[in-house]
User: Fold these one by one.
Assistant:
Number 1:
Amino acid sequence: MEFLPIVIQAEYRGEYRIHLVFNDGVENTVDFSQWLDGPVFERLRDPGYFQRFFLEGGTVAWPNGADVAPETLYERAKSSEAA
């Protein structure tokens, strides 16, 4: 069975950055600004709304239903491009 990353902790770090901790101990601050295009992400461009994120289904989500796949966040957290 392939490893499924799950976000177990998330902390706001300013602008569009969130520090993520995964179920295998990987952690890093990820800049979400690259994903804020398209109708579902439009509200997230408001910094106050962006900060309303919560954990749901193993990833970061927002009240309007927006989220980013945990696998995508995991790959970004593992890369040197995180933030």
Note: Residues 26 and 78 are 7 Å apart (CA to CA).
Number 2:
Amino acid sequence: MKYFCTPDERNGTCYYEFQKGGFNENFWLQDSLLIHDDDWYDSGLEDFFFTEVPDLDDYGTTEISHEQWDALMDRSSDYDETVREALAELAVWAEETFRDNEVFSILGL
């Protein structure tokens, strides 16, 4: 993957974690996806998520429902190719997540 990695591939701790389901007080779960904060900013995902999810907590936990995710994907067409490319990576994981979970959580720095 170009933007995201697994916990085994991370180098350091400056990552946003996308975790299946609600946050269970554990970090770096094996089925999570991570994005380094530099990639979060450089890809445009920071601007995208903070614009489209105004209550996103940069240092806490934010839950995204399937309905919200679908709306995010619809609105992604208004953003540049880099944002759409990064979201496409995340979309495969998100759709898999929603098969068994009502939400996924974004864990801030």
Note: The helical segments are 37-42, 45-52, 66-75, 81-100.
Number 3:
Amino acid sequence: MNTRRLDIVWMLLLLANGITWWVGERHAAGPAAVALVMGIAGIKSALVIGEFMALRGVKRVWQAIVGGWLLIVLALIALAYTLGMK
């Protein structure tokens, strides 16, 4: 396990959390703010899955299963938001 890589990922997660907090503190609303927060959530999830759940070094089929699950969850949240806007 490369501790330098984990440190970099951890710092990226901290930065992403800071950006998400900043968006919330500005009381940003609307599709652009939601898209930004959802994009950050997707990136954070992919980093956690790849590095801290040790999925980066496994067979591609497992990466595809977990990655597909992540995309489905994000898509369902985006769909719920879109339907709620109507």
Note: The chain has a mean pLDDT of 93.
Number 4:
Amino acid sequence: MFVEVKVGALIMDPNSNTPIVVLKGVDGEAILPIWVGAYEANAIALEIEKIVSPRPMTHDLLRNIITELKCQVEKILVSDLLDNTFYAIIEIKDIEGNIISIDARPSDAIALALRTDCPIFVAKKVLDISNASTSLQPKLDEEFEETQKPLEEWPDLIG
């Protein structure tokens, strides 16, 4: 079973100074923090802000290739959490309607999802594992509320 989510926030972990993408349930209380690299966080922030690079960035290139091949990104699935590593799958529909599943890092998959306006889903088991294993959840909830910034300020959080 999967839960639909959206990018709820992009914040910095005050302890490690690492960006965190916070996925928030569309129809519920689900919150999933995913620590990401600075480059991936920047790619996500640029797309949230709809800032167009003078030359295509990697995720823009990937979107352009998929589009030129007459394919479509159907959805992103954050499918697993093993040894503190998240796993994702990009599902692409080809010109004949076949679904192609591609293994990806969640940060790259999220950056692509934002560029293709496709839905993002998280496996319920990932939410359960994450919520059970993190002692940071209350702190993340508090930071999530404190760091809610208008979208135009998100890139400053990546700094």
Note: The domain at 2-158 is CATH 3.10.690.10 (Bifunctional nuclease domain).
